[in-house]
Every structure is written in structure tokens, then in C-alpha cells.
Amino acid sequence: xxxxxxxxxxxxxxxxxxxxxxxxxxxxxxxxxxxxxxxxxxxxxxxxxxxxxxxxxxxxxxxxxxxxxxxxxx
Length: 74
Prior knowledge:
Helices cover 66% and strands 0% of the residues. The chain is an all-alpha fold.
């Protein structure tokens, strides 16, 4: 898959921020994004550690940098 400069499948920054505000949507899109990048282990870790901490960090980083948190790049 082609690498995008933006998370959440190349959607615009405003739309990505709106989607990141909703916890369930942010969790699902974060998992799908990591799997689509070919980062299987990182996707599984997101499934296991699905929680408020990851969501809050993703939300803050999406607002500040336009990208989700990449804790593990495997």
C-alpha cells in the first residue's frame, strides 16, 4: 500500500481530528492504520492495549502533528 503523509487512510487533518475525538472510532482506525502499514505486531498491541491512555495520546498527537502514536514500529 502506498505510504501516506497523513493517518487514517490519507483523510484530511480536520476529518482525522474529528474521527480521533470519538474513542471507539479512534481505536478501530488506529488498529486498521497499523495493519494497513504492515505493522502486524503494532496492530496486535493496539488491540491488547485498547484503552484511554492510547486514545488520549493519539488525540493529542493528531491535533498537534496530524499523526497517531507509533509506540512500536514492528
